[in-house]
Amino acid sequence: MLDLANRPAFRDPRFWLLAAALVCVAIGFILPKVRLNRQVYDIMAFVDITKSMNTRDVMVDGTPASRLEQIKQVLPRFVAGLPCQSRFGLGLFTERRVFVLYDPMEICENFSSIDSSIANLDWRMAWEGDSYVTKGVHAAIALTERLQSSLLFFTDGHEAPPLPHTGMPPFEGEPGKVQGLLVGVGGKSLSPMPKFDEEGREIGVYGPRDVLQESRFGVAPTDAKDRPGYHPRNAPFGAMPEGNEHLGQVKEKHLKEIAAQTGLSYAPMSSPDGLIDVFEAAASPREVVVATDIRPYPVALALVLLVISYGVLPLRDRIVRSLRQIHQSLTSRSAPGSRLTTNPEERKN
């Protein structure tokens, strides 16, 4: 009977490393896919394309850019970071309504179309100039509920015209029934809003007299009769007060109030990864069973074993040999009967 244990090859660790690597490669070829549970998301995203979103108070790749341009940069990366089998739909907000460009669809199979649609968003798609953000969020919630999705709403929260003195309109839905995230876009400091003509050409910035500084709809406030210019029939609100409605600024306080009213969450615009984290904490996931390919793991282990066999072990042997040679050299010089001669004349003799 052959004594395999005493053969040199079987005592060499490289043999066992190569054998283990071969086994790992074989397992990688025959290993089936494993079915695992995964959480995915159905998202209906709406982008505010009103005039205040043209304010250039954010940075894109180190360059000042409009709020809409920042959304167009972050949103595709956000979608790319979601797990496959998640579904994403896109819509627009302007005036008081939302318009769906397409219903939620699977992101991995349709990413090219999703990316292209986001890249082509433009403020010129707006059909009205007003911006009733609160009513727009309410409309988006109702539509998102019908699509059985979570809401993602990008806006700066700038109401134009401003809200009346009575405050926000009531929310007729059930708070918290639709989960999702309001994303505040824009800087916290007041910035001028670009002004465009009917041909879409920039002609300057909005001034105090170009926009309403106060709502003139509904019932006048109780102190209107004490204002300059008040007339009970011709000027029931009095003279237009001074204000900064012609300047752009993310209205975080207002957006947080809308979130509290509707049961949504609020977060400022951030990086795609940061946005995914806050969205996943706010949204409702959907659990699916996916076939996961785990074959790369044993193949990667085989690669590690080969690196150890052909890289680490030869390097170790080389270091050991070098240390032995140094040790032998030092030992031979310090052995009895050997004397190091430092005098040149002794060396000549």
Report the order of strands and helices: HHEEEEHEEHHEEEEEEHEHEHH
Number of strands: 14
State the helicity in percent bands: 25-40%
Order of the strands making up the biggest sheet = 6-5-2-7-8-13
Measured distance between first and last alpha carbons? 65 Å
Quick one: biggest sheet?
6 strands, mixed
Number of discrete helical segments: 9
Strand content: 15-25%
Q: CATH superfamily assignment of the largest domain?
A: von Willebrand factor, type A domain
User: Could you tell me the mean pLDDT?
Assistant: 89
By CATH, the topology of the largest domain is Rossmann fold
Describe this structure in words.
The chain has 349 residues and is of the alpha/beta class. The protein has three domains: 37-165 and 172-211 and 246-292, 3-Layer(aba) Sandwich (Rossmann fold), CATH 3.40.50.410; 215-244, no CATH class; 296-331. Helix content is 36%, strand content 20%. It has helices at residues 8-11, 13-30, 67-80, 111-119, 133-146, 252-262, 272-282, 296-333, 344-348, and strands spanning 34-40, 42-48, 58-60, 63-65, 87-94, 97-106, 150-155, 180-184, 191-192, 194-196, 202-205, 247-248, 265-268, 286-292. The strands form five sheets. Strands 6-5-2-7-8-13 form a six-stranded mixed sheet, with helices on both faces. The protein has a two-stranded antiparallel ribbon with strand order 1-14. A two-stranded antiparallel sheet has the order 3-4. A hairpin with a 5-residue loop joins β10 (194-196) and β11 (202-205). The longest helix is centred in the C-terminal third of the chain and has 38 residues, at 296-333.
